[in-house]
Amino acid sequence: MSDCIFCRIAAGEIPAELVYEDDLVLGFRDLSPQAPTHVLIIPRKHIATLNDLQPEDEAIVGRLYSAAAQIAAREGLAERGYRTLINCNADGGQTVFHLHLHLLGGRQMNWPPG
Amino acid sequence: MSDCIFCRIAAGEIPAELVYEDDLVLGFRDLSPQAPTHVLIIPRKHIATLNDLQPEDEAIVGRLYSAAAQIAAREGLAERGYRTLINCNADGGQTVFHLHLHLLGGRQMNWPPG
User: pLDDT tens-digit profile of B59-73?
Assistant: First the structure.
């Protein structure tokens, strides 16, 4: 059994409120939402950080974004807009070391971005 | 001549401080930096927003991220960390309607992300 919480969510061992699922990625709601919509989209493959991306992972990153756009549309955010981000390591604010894309919307996002 | 400022930067018609360039994407420093390192990475292809991504653009999005990781490493940010984001439309804070990835680092990024 993996000790990575996101691998365990992907394996169905830990419950999460899934909003998207395909062969490469899945999306579920963040437990500490920072906006009316706050979804995390993760690859099924365990990739610790952006620094660990391999050239063959480019399709996975592309899929994270096509999933984000689909989820945003379903949540009624496409026209108003939304913010997507991936944090890397401590200065970026990464706390779970399984790559994840944050999708935030439903309010005006501010600048600077944290 | 395009009226898109980022298309004009990609075409070399408007100067920018380039930090990365390949066949699909280029990176240059943001003129209003929000962190010690603040780079914008754009596709050469004009894509207005995340909502306009087509399935065949997944490789472009993947490349934006592999470029971001390479730039972060060159700037000495890989271990300390960094934040990457793409804004979509007004609520996301998008101001130039040519898809761009923000890479920010060199300081602790805060939460919430704007």
Answer: 899 999 999 999 999
Nearest CB among A34, A55, A109 relative to B91 is that of A109
Reported ipTM:
0.96
Tokens 């390949």 — which residue?
B22
- Three-state SS at A38: strand
Closest-CA residue in chain B for A100? B84
**CATH of the domain spanning B5-105, picked from 3.30.980.10, 3.30.428.10, 3.40.50.2300, 3.40.50.2000:** 3.30.428.10
State the pTM of this model: 0.97
Q: Which residues of A are catalytic?
A: 100
For residues A91-105, average pLDDT:
98
CA distance A104 to A30: 10
Which is it for strands A101-105 and A82-88: parallel, antiparallel or unpaired?
antiparallel
**What is the average per-residue pLDDT within B71-85?**
98
Nearest to B81 among A91, A104, A108 (CB): A91
